[in-house]
């Protein structure tokens, strides 16, 4: 009987603030970090499950403590008992009444629960010998519905409605798997757009992105309007009319400010405006969208749970949504969000970058293509070429497209040496710095 | 120069699950707990500031770790530097870009920030020799406006509009202070209504509540409809037509379930229905309110921040709101919420009970009466007669009314012996239990 013998946690941080990589209007000096969790087993082959929460530095220790607080939910239990019913496992963690008080279903505790659930999915798909996207795709519609907690969703999506969506996809799965393996999944890139970059660097990277096959690029905005107008127009000149340009304000504006800021950008022909205001402000997004139409509005990378996504869709507040693999309650809650989006006919452009977010979220987008919507060419997964070398099964990008992962699991496993060297605050990378930037 | 020399934290838990005190439809076995924080100074008179986050057991260690992570914001700084501009201090903590990623402004990290901000207000009002409600009441309208972070609020409340509300109150402050000190502030009681109680115990406690002078009682509902109908009707028979009866579903229902559940309760004549569904579901509350009108709908004790309250008010989703002293970003964010409620003309019935929540929130309601709305007889502060003996300056309830606190500070300080005995897991109360219920 294979059992889970340990839940190990690691506070892993990368001193990215030294190079201004990842800088935006709200986050001037992030140290990209992962609160990393491993579910170890007594299986002779070393079977384990890996998960992480992405943070940007300070507080990664708190996030790691939240992971450690979940130890008693898993240690001593059989792998069969957990991965045999991942829906029940997710409901058990999210439903724990005492932990629920700390959210409910939001913030540090919810992200920790999501990472442990993701680690259990990693374990399950490794044991099945399949990459996670394929593990999900091979489930029946009924099995997928069983993964979803419909609490608070039934006024927008019932289990029967979800089943209908999934059953419609069922006959096409085989052909879609072949298509995905042959074509990959579109990516877009944020690499040119960080606020800390000069115009020249932005243009150079934008040209490079187009040469590399990307059809959409994204720029950070929101610090100074005149800079944004200049940068967006420069980017449009640089990439020409056929490449989509999105912008990301990272929650910088109030509703009125967003409207005033976006009107002078209308002539750039933006593909979308991401996070114009607070990620909690459903009605605010609806008001902005109405005022700046036809400029498309989006949000979601900080969407705390399925209840916020439900409302964004019900209110017609967004033209498209971002999902994030490490923000909500794991694969299960992201399946709920993907099904909601499918029900409302809204496109999903997964958020990635950070540490390991590309590795994780590609699986969800691909599972959505095969088992839910059958759509991929009208959407794209974010890509930032950053920190992938620390992962055992890094993403593979070719001609601006994500190749479908083939290794078993959820691609969250990091190299032992990367973890060891970047442990905060005593890993060699941090102890070598004169002042710990994340402290 | 008085400086802050330490931020000390304590994981304090009470084994309340042993007696089913505090049981409701979502929380069957809470162990009422406090992640407790002390800002110590080098002042010769022992000046310190006290704050806490209320939790219900598991995870209180994570919450305590989040408090500890804020040490570098305060230790080594002068007391003048912090309490001289509490608005700037609150914006600094809430605006830290790296910590913000862990919410933003919600969950474990936000509650920790709120507790440290509250401890700073405690320190400020102690130093001024005033109870917190009076410390706020004695501020000018301009000073109160400076406490508020208007980010994400200006589509509903601008600084100028807030100033207008506060200036209208200014000429009446002196008379209101006298009135408050003479009359106290109405309380309502949840003591009879816990789900774990028998009908007989509920009736006995309801009769006692009326004899004690309470004009409103609250019952927990949401586990079984037939029980709720019976208990509500029994309660109505017991207290007669002149006592208000509220019910609290503690987030138990989906939107459709709430509507179906509440219709058979309509003849009870409920004063309000609290937390019918997810605290995040603004549109859901609006749909429920519309469907069950005229039964009043409320929420707020789990309202994560001012953005959710703004939307509840904008959407006309609630008839009244609860505020909680330890859920949002401290006194500053609660001032924002009180000003929003005043602007929309919605009554506030503060959430209390738990550990120290009565002690804290009474100050906010009283400050609202004196400096903001001038209203108190059409609203009430929750009261549960529970755990007050652990506080140095416990609430005083007389004839169903809160007496205005007179001791300097925010009333959050606990007795040293209470902290020591209830430290988890090694305090004497926990080490004497055969199995640590909170573990």
TrEMBL record, chains A, B:
Enzyme Commission no: 4.2.1.68
This protein's record includes keyword Lyase: yes
UniProt cross-references to Gene3D superfamilies, sorted A to Z: Enolase-like C-terminal domain (3.20.20.120), Enolase-like, N-terminal domain (3.30.390.10)
Domain Mandelate racemase/muconate lactonizing enzyme C-terminal: 199-295
Position of the signal peptide: none
The entry's keywords: Lyase, Magnesium, Metal-binding
Catalytic activity from the UniProt record: L-fuconate = 2-dehydro-3-deoxy-L-fuconate + H2O
InterPro entries registered for this protein in UniProt: Enolase-like_C_sf, Enolase-like_N, Enolase_C-like, L-fuconate_dehydratase, Mandel_Rmase/mucon_lact_enz_CS, Mandelate_racemase_C, Mandelate_racemase_N_dom, RHMD-like
Top-level lineage group: Bacteria
Top-tier EC class: lyase
Pfam families: MR_MLE_C (PF13378), MR_MLE_N (PF02746)
Metal-binding keyword on record: yes
Cofactor: Mg(2+)
PANTHER family, alphabetized: ENOLASE SUPERFAMILY, MANDELATE RACEMASE (PTHR13794), MITOCHONDRIAL ENOLASE SUPERFAMILY MEMBER 1 (PTHR13794:SF58)
Protein's UniProt name: L-fuconate dehydratase
Organism: Luteibacter sahnii
């Amino acid at each position: 009987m294979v059992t889970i013998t340990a839940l190990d946690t690691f506070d892993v941080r990368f001193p990215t603030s030294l190079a201004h990589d990842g800088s935006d209007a709200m986050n001037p000096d992030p140290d990209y970090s992962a609160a990393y969790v491993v579910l170890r087993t007594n299986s002779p082959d070393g079977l384990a499950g890996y998960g992480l929460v992405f943070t940007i530095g300070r507080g990664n220790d708190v996030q790691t403590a939240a992971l450690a607080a979940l130890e008693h939910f898993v240690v001593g239990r059989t792998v069969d008992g957990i991965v045999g019913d991942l829906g029940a496992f997710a409901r058990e963690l999210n439903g724990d009444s005492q932990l629920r008080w700390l959210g409910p279903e939001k913030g540090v505790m919810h992200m920790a629960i999501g990472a442990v659930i993701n680690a259990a999915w990693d374990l399950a798909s490794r044991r099945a010998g399949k990459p996670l996207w394929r593990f999900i795709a091979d489930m029946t519609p009924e099995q997928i519905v069983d993964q979803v907690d419909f609490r608070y969703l039934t006024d927008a999506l019932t289990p029967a409605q979800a089943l209908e969506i999934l059953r419609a996809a069922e006959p096409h799965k085989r052909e879609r798997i072949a298509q995905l393996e042959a074509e990959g999944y579109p990516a877009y890139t944020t690499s040119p757009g960080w606020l800390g970059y000069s115009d020249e660097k932005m243009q150079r990277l934008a040209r490079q992105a187009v040469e590399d096959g990307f059809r959409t690029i994204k720029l950070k905005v929101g610090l100074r309007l005149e800079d944004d107008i200049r940068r967006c127009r420069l980017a449009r000149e640089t990439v020409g009319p056929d490449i989509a340009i999105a912008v990301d304000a990272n929650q910088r504006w109030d509703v009125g400010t967003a409207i005033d800021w976006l009107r002078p950008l209308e002539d750039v022909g933006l593909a979308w405006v991401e996070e114009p205001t607070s990620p909690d402000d459903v009605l605010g997004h609806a008001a902005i969208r109405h005022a700046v139409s036809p400029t498309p509005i989006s949000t979601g990378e900080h969407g705390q749970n399925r209840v916020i996504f439900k409302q964004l869709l019900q209110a017609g507040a967004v033209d498209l949504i971002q999902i994030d693999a490490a923000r909500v309650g794991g694969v299960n809650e992201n399946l709920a969000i993907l099904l909601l989006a499918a029900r409302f006919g809204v496109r999903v452009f997964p958020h990635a970058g950070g540490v390991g977010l590309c590795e994780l979220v590609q699986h969800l987008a691909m599972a959505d293509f095969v088992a839910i919507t059958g759509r991929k060419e009208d959407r794209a997964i974010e890509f930032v070429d950053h920190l992938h070398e620390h992962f055992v099964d890094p993403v593979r990008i070719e001609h601006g497209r994500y190749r479908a992962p083939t290794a078993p699991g959820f691609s969250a496993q990091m190299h032992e040496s990367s973890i060891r060297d970047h442990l905060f605050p005593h890993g060699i990378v941090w102890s070598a710095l004169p002042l710990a930037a994340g402290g």
